[in-house]
Amino acid sequence: MHGFEPYFPIDNKIIPTNIPYDIKKSLIELNKLRDKIPNLIKTAQNAQKIQHDKKHRLIKFQPGDSVLILFPFNEVGKSQKLAPRYKGPFKIIDKINDLNYKVELTLNNKTTNDIIHVRRMKPYINR
């Protein structure tokens, strides 16, 4: 009536035994790409590492050094535009590893020893 055989829901349930050539070719191409992808990812990661290492410098502190610490601004009702981002100076008590240090914090007349990541610290320069 319409010039072709209509599709019925049962036709989707039956798996065809013959796969057209273009689908086989596409599957072969996809499998080749899957084999190449891990190598491409590693080369991209190495290139990114080289770019990162060009400007990255690891800052090391010693126990007893004075540092300023970045505190995220989260006080409600106060403008953060002109507020200082770093507070301090605070003393480093101990080095946990290359990235974390135990620091003696004195805020609001309370002294605590917290572990602070090196990204949140910068050296305090006495003027």
Question: Could you characterize the architecture of this molecule?
Answer:
This protein has 2 helices and 5 strands, in the order ααβββββ. With 127 residues, it is of the alpha+beta class. It folds into 2 domains: 9-55; 66-123, SH3 type barrels (Roll).
Task: Kindly list the characteristics that best describe this protein.
127 residues; alpha+beta; SH3 type barrels; 2 domains; 5-stranded antiparallel β-sheet; 2 helices; 5 strands; elongated
Short account of what is shown:
By secondary structure, this protein is α+β, with helices and mostly antiparallel strands.
Mean pLDDT: 87
CATH topology of the largest domain: SH3 type barrels
Which spans have pLDDT < 50 for at least 5 consecutive residues?
Answer: none
CATH architecture of the largest domain: Roll
Radius of gyration, CA atoms, in whole angstroms = 30 Å
What class, by secondary structure content? alpha+beta
Separation of termini?
94 Å
Strand content: 25-35%
Enumerate how many helices there are, as a single number: 2
Number of strands: 5
Domain count? 2
Overall, the morphology is: elongated
CATH class of the largest domain reads Mainly Beta
List the helices and strands and how they pair.
Layout (H helix, E strand, L loop, with lengths): L8 H5 L7 H35 L10 E5 L15 E10 L4 E8 L2 E8 L3 E3 L4
Antiparallel strand pairs: 1-2, 1-5, 2-3, 3-4
